[in-house]
Amino acid sequence: MCPAAPRPGVTRELKWVRFGKDLELLDSPGILPMRISDQTAALKLAICDDIGERSYDFADVAAILVQILLRHPAVGSEAFRKRYKIDVDSDCGKLYVSINCSYLK
């Protein structure tokens, strides 16, 4: 419905998009500062691939995402076992990523 890309300049104007009869979304251009001092915000942007690839380490961000998902009540290690057929150490996303995601290195 709206073009998107992991680079600046794709969204150039405001655009309302309707999803069904009860939901509308306003797509707008985003502006990110050159430096993000809030590391939690920077991490969330990295997880969504909204900041430059040179700004973070893929494996570190992936490991943190795994830990966040494992601790989330709606996901947890059981969901990882069911979905991906793997056991995950709930305390160490970095270990999981290093074993199962060698392409991130």
From TrEMBL:
Transmembrane segments: none annotated. This is G domain-containing protein. GO terms for molecular function: GTP binding; GTPase activity. Keywords: GTP-binding, Nucleotide-binding. GO terms for biological process: mitochondrial translation. InterPro entries: GTP-bd_ortho_bundle_sf. It comes from Aegilops tauschii subsp. strangulata. The keyword GTP-binding applies. GO terms for cellular component: mitochondrion.
